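**Protein record**
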Amino acid sequence: MDIGHSKSTVIDNVWLYSRYYGNQLAFLREVEGNGSAALVYLFNLLENILKSNLSDYEPNFQDVVKKSLISGAINKIEHDFLNNKKTGIRKLRNIFAHANLSQFNVKFKGDEILYPLTENDNCQLLYSKLSDIIFNIIMKVAIIPLNLDLKVNVDSAIKLLKYEIITFTPEDILIDHKINNDTHPKFCSFQNLGLRFS
């Protein structure tokens, strides 16, 4: 059975662990209107709180999630939600940190619409689907040293959240923007030079 808590409850309890992290979560609520910024900030806070719990600030995201599972701070379902190479938070974090967002779209189960991550509304939608789960995982980890009698379980919410990340090639992007790659002058000039989009 899921035991999830409101963002306000999460912020209050994380603040008991660290005023800094509590204030950062409260600030995050103020920037939710900027979907991509809110996602990046949320992913960074999650990573920093996992590292803080382990008192180890060196590992990358993948390793800190794995160490958090080994330490018992998170369970296997949470670990897989965070560390899945194809659809996990790790994948999304890496896309927002390192990639050309115009290549990436999210598709939710039962919905045939592709949501490009270049659009603020789509990032806000993704944030709305992920943030309650991540806030609760953050609180679950943060309250470990506090010995609070507070349960957190978001396993069912994680299992219900089904999405995939669809990657477009440069040719797909041209087609999506209704640019004819056979007649568009810039595309043709690349082809004439023997260059191909990768």
Notes: The longest helix spans residues 120-142. Strands lie at 104-108, 115-116, 163-167. The radius of gyration is 19 Å.
